[in-house]
Amino acid sequence: MDFEEYLRLQSQTFVQYYRCLPLSLLKKENADEDGNRVIMPLSALDRLARLNIQYPMLFQIKNPSTERVTHCGVLEFVSDEGFIHMPSWLMAHLGVLENEIVLVRSTSLPKATFIKLQAHTKDFLNVPHPREMLEYNFGKFPCVTAGETIAVTEGERRYYLDVLEAQPADAVCSLDTDCAVDFAPPLDYVEPPPHVVASKGSDDPPQPARFTGVAARMDGKPVEQQPTPSPAAAVNAVAPGVPKRKVRFGGPSAAGSGVSKSKEEGAGKEQEKQFTGTQYSLNS
């Protein structure tokens, strides 16, 4: 963006250059490093109010030197003038360092209808309440952009998820929306080898036929022919594959007070079966 365009946009929308600082420098208890909300100066709020910006307030952040773009929400307007405080992971995603310049522009994003995620490790499959965990963690992300890697937590555990796809646009608003979430197999997931079972054949070798000619009776009547024994069939070494089973996030299989002991014992066995991804509705 050249300087003339920058000045022209000042009267139409919110657009501003800021120097970037880590969110952790403010040492605020309500500032979450795992989300994508930033802290801006008070002057930004005054300008946004005059421009009648739609709520929730969402912003496009660009690294001018690399043209890399992502999106974020805002937590507070308490930073020093000319500075914006961002989560460290968001700075790393944009490729900006402390005190480097970013371009912030207000934007409006469509409501998310579909998001496809991919966990970095298959440990994510062991989360006991994945739907509740995602609904809680997505509350930290007012918007989601395809190509990002976000962090979600469950107790003391931290899981990293790649945002592979978002609909109806590459950047979507994830607040107050009924969104379907699909999961690709984890990055470290290895397809198990096919289960091969050889059919059991006879231990005795086949006996050669004693007589293969045509039989005849002395009185000329027809003789009932016995069927010639066929040689032993080849052993079929291909067995049906292991049945695929879906891991349903948010379904009845999620841990709860009504889960029987037999279901709990079967959960471990189901984890050994193939993971083919699943889809469910996520209410943020």
Automatic annotation (TrEMBL):
It comes from the Eukaryota. InterPro entries: Ufd1-like, Ufd1-like_Nn, UFD1_N1, UFD1_N2. It holds the Pfam family UFD1_N1. One of its GO terms (biological process) is ERAD pathway. Residues 14-110, 111-186 form the Ubiquitin fusion degradation protein UFD1 N-terminal subdomain domain. Residues 261-273 have a biased composition (Basic and acidic residues). Residues 219-284 are annotated as: Disordered. GO terms for cellular component: VCP-NPL4-UFD1 AAA ATPase complex. Residues 275-284 have a biased composition (Polar residues). Residues 231-242 have a biased composition (Low complexity). Keywords: Ubl conjugation pathway. One of its GO terms (molecular function) is polyubiquitin modification-dependent protein binding. Belongs to the UFD1 family. This is Ubiquitin fusion degradaton protein. It comes from Miscanthus lutarioriparius.
